[in-house]
Design a protein that fits this description.
It is a single chain. The protein is mainly beta. It is built from no helices and eleven strands. The strands form two sheets. Strands 2, 4, 5, 6, 9, 10 and 11 form a seven-stranded mixed sheet that branches. Strands 1-3-8-7 form a four-stranded antiparallel sheet, with no helix packed on it. It is 0% helix and 49% strand.
């Protein structure tokens, strides 16, 4: 499975972006998906996850109420809507496919990773 993330860019504080991640294979639709991010000099951190049918989601505390994960199984695509962005949200954002039908906050539960898309939030 190959994952292609897009939608990153430069935005001002308080702005919004929507990230997309397209999977190359339809079998991806039976797996949970997740978004992680890595800021310069920091470790990769969990952001959001969604289960195989979109019926369950989970978020990091730092983005709850601002970010929304969703998926379109027919399009093999997962989205991350990011609102009210803050400078501390600046990072490379990665999408990933879980080994399981459920989502997960643990990076080790993910089998495939996209190449990342850079989000920069200016103050």
């Amino acid at each position: 499975v190959q994952l292609q993330a897009s939608g990153g860019g430069l935005v001002q504080t308080g702005g919004s972006l929507r990230l997309s991640c397209v999977a190359s294979r339809r079998t991806n639709s039976n797996n949970g998906m997740g978004w992680f991010r890595q800021a310069p000099g920091k470790e990769r951190e969990f952001i959001a996850t969604i289960n195989w049918n979109g019926g369950g989601t989970n978020y990091a505390e730092s983005v709850k109420g601002r970010f929304t994960i969703s998926r379109d199984r027919a399009k093999n695509t997962v989205y991350l809507q990011m609102n009210n962005l803050k400078p501390e949200d600046t990072a490379v954002y990665y999408c990933a496919t879980s080994r399981y039908a459920s989502g997960s906050s643990q990076a080790g539960h993910y089998a495939y990773w996209g190449q990342g898309t850079l989000v920069t939030v200016s103050s």
